[in-house]
Design goal:
Elements (H helix, E strand, L loop, with lengths): L23 H14 L6 E4 L15 E3 L6 H11 L4 E7 H7 L1 H10 L4 E6 L40 H5 L5 E8 L3 H19 L4 E7 L3 H4 L3 H15 L3 E5 L1 H5 L7
Parallel strand pairs: 1-2, 1-3, 3-4, 4-6, 5-6
Antiparallel strand pairs: 5-7
Helix pairs in contact: 1-6, 3-4
């Protein structure tokens, strides 16, 4: 009998600390499957900062580094420059990457640092109590926006589309956005991450995959409602697909220097 699925060797078999319906577990498995399939378990390093991502090192059975809140791209820059034959992954949430870590991610992307960012966007601060994040939708309620995000009269601004912003920078080579709300989209996420990791190992420059993920606990929803809300509200705000892909041109020698 042919085995078509199994437990990834790189994924530790322990009880999860994540809330029911959380998307982090799905994303963890995808990363571990790819690390195993690429044969890079001994050369994989994940950097996971403060936030729900702080638990990630409990589940990955390969090297990890836990930088300060928002400073993951700075740490990953140093690691990748010293160990340039290793697979270096930044694993960040939206509060971490798009708020306290805005400067780090923008400048790392602009420099074209050759690591891969996995950006988990659940449109709210998860571990710290459900505060409004830079990606919180207009009208979405949060602990610091109990009446909903109001961009004008309350001066709360608008949700930031990080991928589209980084796409304007010359140092970015591959940027994609997926979601974990159904099987088809989960498969696409895996292919986006595979493409990004392969490009990294070729030394092609900055790559990033944003993943829309539910946070039922802080959205005040059960798991089914959260998935439905993600599809109905988040995806129209953050369209899925490859936002920037220069890989073919670079591989053909037409995309400028690496």
């Amino acid at each position: 009998m042919k085995t078509v699925a199994g437990h990834p060797a790189s994924l530790v078999s322990v009880q999860t600390k994540y809330c029911a319906g959380c998307g982090h577990g799905i994303i963890h498995r995808i990363i571990c499957e790819l690390v195993d399939e690429m044969g890079l378990r001994e050369k994989a390093i994940i950097t996971n900062p403060v936030g729900c991502a702080i638990w990630a090192d409990l589940y990955f059975d390969f090297d990890s580094v836990q930088p300060a809140h928002g400073r993951t791209p700075a740490a990953a820059t140093g690691i990748k420059r010293v160990l340039n034959d290793h697979l270096v992954i930044c694993y960040q949430g939206d509060g971490d990457l798009a708020a306290i870590g805005t400067a780090e991610i923008i400048h790392a992307a602009n420099r074209g640092e050759k690591f891969t960012v996995i950006f988990v966007n659940n449109a709210i601060y998860g571990m710290t109590g459900g505060q409004m994040a830079p990606t919180t939708l207009v009208g979405q309620k949060a602990a610091t926006a109990p009446d909903g995000r109001d961009p004008v009269s309350q001066g709360m601004g608008y949700p930031i589309r990080v991928i589209e912003m980084l796409a304007t920078l010359e140092g970015t080579r591959y940027l994609a956005r997926g979601a974990v709300n159904n099987v088809a989209n989960i498969r696409k996420v895996k292919e986006y991450i595979r493409t990004a990791l392969n490009a990294q190992m070729e030394g092609i420059g900055f790559t990033m995959v944003e993943i829309l993920s539910p946070c039922g606990t802080n959205w005040g929803m059960d798991s089914v409602e959260a998935m439905q809300w993600l599809e109905k509200e988040m995806i129209p705000q953050f369209p899925l697909g490859e936002i920037k892909n220069e890989l073919s041109a670079i591989r053909a020698g037409k995309g400028g220097s690496q």
